[in-house]
Each structure stands twice: as C-alpha cells, then as structure tokens.
Amino acid sequence: MTARSLDDASESRIPPSGHRKAALAAWIGSALEYYDFFIYGSAAALVFPRVFFDPDDPATATLISMATFGVAYAARPIGAVFLGHFGDRIGRKKIMILTLFMMGLSTLLIGCLPTYAQVGTLAPVLLVVLRFLQGLSAAGEQSSASSLTLEHAPENQRGYFTSFTLNGTQFGLIISTLVFIPIASLPEHQLLTWGWRIPFLLSALVTVTAYFIRRSLQEAPAFEEISERDEVHKLPVVELLRDHWVDMLRVASAALIASVSTIGGVWVLSYSTGAVGLDRTTMLWVSVFANLVALIALPLWAKLSDRIGRKPVFLIGSIGSAVMIFVYLGAVSSKSYPLIFLAGAATMGLVYSASNGIWPSLYAEMFSTRVRLSGMAISTQVGFAITGFAVTYAAELSGSDGKNWVAVGILTASMCVVSSIAVLTARETYNVPTAQLGMKPGTRPAQTAEREAAAA
Question: Where are the bilayer-spanning segments (predicted)?
C-alpha cells in the first residue's frame, strides 16, 4: 500500500461533510475564543493606562499597559510545551476544549478586577496574572485547531481548509472591535468606571456558545490512526527536538511576521488616538474595515497556495508587509481618514493576509502527525512571544512624544525580513502527501513499509 493509499484510507474515515464541519467548528471556536484575547488589546490601548496604573504618570502608564499586553505572549511558549505535549498524547479535541475554558474564565475575571484607585498596585498584579492565563490558553488554540483541520482536509485543499482557523481569528477581532466601539463612545466617567468591563463579562456567553460547538467535533482521523497503532510518543517533545529542531527554528523565525498584526493593531491604536490625536471610534472602524477585507482575502490566498505553493504566497505577504507598514503608518500620521482607511485595508486586510492565511498549513506541514501539535505550538509561540512585546519596543522607539513612526516601521519591516528568509529556506510542502509530511524526501512512512511487507 502506498502513502497515497494511506491518505485515501484516512479520508475515507471522515463523513462526506466532515471536512467542512471541522473547518467550520475551528472557525467558530477560534472566532469566539479570540474575541476574548483581542478585547484586551483594545482595552490596553484605550482604557487600562487610566484604570490599572498610576494616573499621575500617563506616559509610563501607557508603556506598562502595552507591556501587560505582551505578558500573554511571554506565557505562550510555556503553554505551548504543556498543551502541545498533551495534544500529541491525548488528542487535538480535548486541548481545544481545555483552552476554551482557560480563556473564558481568565477573561471573565479581568472584567471583575478592582482598579488602581481601589486597591493600588494589587490591581495591575492581578491583571498580569490573568493576562498570563490568557496567554497559556492561546498557546494551544491555533495549533490544535490548525492540526485538527489539516488532518481532516482533502489532500489538495489543506491550505484552504486550515485557513479557516485564522479566518475565525480575524472574525474574533472584528467582533471584539465592534463591541468596543460603543463602549469607547461612552462619556469618560462611564467608560472608566463600568463601561470597559462589559466586553470582558460578555465572555461568559462566548465560552458557553463555543463549548457546545466544539464538543461535537470529531477527533482527527490521522491522530486516531496512530493511537490505534500505539504509535503515540510518550514524550513528543523528545522526538520533536531530535528530528525537527531545524523546522522549529524556521517556524519560530517565520512567526515574527505576526509583528505586523500587533503593531498595526494595538500600537497604531494607541499612537493614533494619543500622539496624533485622532478619534478613537473612527480608528476602531479602520480596524473593522481592514479585517472585513481580510475575511475575504484569507481563503483566496489559501486557495492560491494550494495551486502554486505555500512559499510564494507567504513571501508575497511578508515582503509586501515590510513595504506597506510604512504606507500605513505614514497615512495615520497624515491625519487623513480616507487615506488611513485605504492604507489600513491594503496593508492589514490584503497584503498581510497572504502570510496570515497560509501559515497554519505551511507550519503544520513541516511536522509529522506524531509531533505536529507540539511542533506548531512551541515554535510559533516562541516567535509570537517576541512579536507580543513589539508594541512595547515600539512605545520606546517612538520617543517621549510618541511620534517617531518611522523607527516603528523599521522595527516591523526588519521582523518581516527575518520571516521571509526563514520561509525561503523551507521545503515546499503543498504537494506532499499528508502521510509523508514531516519526513525527509523519499522516505516512506513506517506503516507503509510494514503493510507492503505483509502483502508480499
């Protein structure tokens, strides 16, 4: 039996609607869970400096608030090791449910926290602890959803189906921003006392909804097969570090492309409403518009990667973003709202989506089923930990008046260049059979050789 036969056998275990159901469940779950994660970014830029930190030193308060946003990214490598290990041991579905409840509970509790005026320095300490828990959860979310979706997907549509994980993430960002728009429009006193809490308290509804969707998911057939053959590694990270360490470095470096999202989303919101003096509600609408464009662009870029390859599509996004970030930041500094909407949609919605839409398949295809979730989770979260603090680096580079956007653009473009170089060195995998992913070219899966020997 050939590797292709094994893939056909795996696909035969999935009901006719299974490919779409897995993608839809990953999309909805990611959207609802990342709603929780992203509302923190809006609050960190617009509210938290005045709620959880010393109001007498606004510049320092803003800097520290941006740093708390990055705390979740520092937590993600830790969560990746833990969640990745168990995801490759007990299955993708269980991890997806665990991360859901971790994210929902920590987000709900943020909405219940006392303020700096009420309890002093205890307030930011509690905020950091809960943000850390959010990071632990996010570490396993995208990797488990991407792994499960890829392992359900038809051979020639892996890019398209796995793109729905990121498409859901973008939708979560849209929902969180739409929720924050009326909140941001509240009078100052109402916003800072009770208004900011509403998006966080709504996470209880988000968590319950997402649970009922995810509990009906079928475990990935590829994982079930290795479980049935008792091929699940007791310590997946050992095999990962032994056989896939080069790909781990590639993925960690490629993941720096996420700096475009953190700078273009969180830092730009703080910069535009602070140093530039733009209307915060309008800038939130810029984010919504850009992400609506992304919802359309993501699956289209992913479909293209199924036809011409992952690498060229990713490089269009990474190299293009290195150029377009200057266009976007320049537009914001110009204070021209039409230009800002156009540049934001072109940069964050269209160009960046080329990389953002296909990294779930590109990264997942570098690892075998035995270590896929661990490999994706640990590698991406190392890169994301760096990009999570990009907003803090940007706050420093922008100077005391916060207006040096060129330096911020150079920082972001540099990370895009590193990401591009990493992907250039990778193997093209869009036409590699699923059973042979993560293996050296020309190597047959062990079970294939065993079945051929038995047949002989």
Answer: 22-48, 60-83, 95-116, 122-139, 160-184, 196-213, 251-270, 282-301, 313-331, 337-359, 371-393, 405-426
